[in-house]
Amino acid sequence: MHPFSAIRPPPLAVGLGMAGLVPFVGGALGLWVIPDAWRGRVMEELLSYAAVILAFMGAIHWGLAMRADESSDKAPIQLGLSVIPPLLGWFALSLPINLGLPVFFLAFACLYFADLWAVNHGLAPVWYPALRKPLSIVVVLSLAVAWVATWIEH
Question: Which residue windows are coiled coil (predicted)?
Answer without folding.
Answer: none
